[in-house]
Amino acid sequence: MEMIELDRSPTGLPEGLPQPIYVLHLADIAGGKGLSAAKHTAWRFYRGTFAGPAVAIEVGRTARGRRPRMTSLSDGHSIQVTFQQVSRVEHLSPVRVADYELRRLKIPGAPTAFWLKSHIEGKDLVVLIAGKLPGMKYLKPYPAERFLAALRP
Predict the structure, then answer these.
(1) Of 6, 11, 60, 150, which is most buried by a Cβ count within 10 Å?
(2) Interior angle at CA 137, CA 132 and CA 141, nearest 5
(3) Using CA atoms, how far apart are residues 107 and 23, in angstroms rounded to an integer?
(4) In this structure, what is the dihedral angle of CA atoms 11, 51, 102, 113, given to the nearest 10 degrees?
């Protein structure tokens, strides 16, 4: 939330965004580490609508007192797909009955997912949004440990 604290966040964004982006490495997973090893590396801001043009801007995290910098800009259909994915995830029954923070989880060399960080210890969920993993379905929530187990050698 540094961008909001610094009053540098865009306005008029869809509710619930920006998304924090976390990166977790396969070596950490293979070593038995969980999602707590993921590093918060950036914020992803969105601008646009379901029906019209849309863009995503990633802003890297910085040390306190340093100016944030845009690290990437994406546009086109894939951003509208992300809007649709967020909407679908928000309507999943486990999400409707509990309190989660929506995070984007990047694992270099593995599928991209949403990490639904629970406010209750041990109740985090992971939802695949790009790529495939054996035994796991697109946009279906799985307990975090089951997701990580599917990535371990």
Answers:
(1) 150
(2) 115
(3) 6
(4) -130
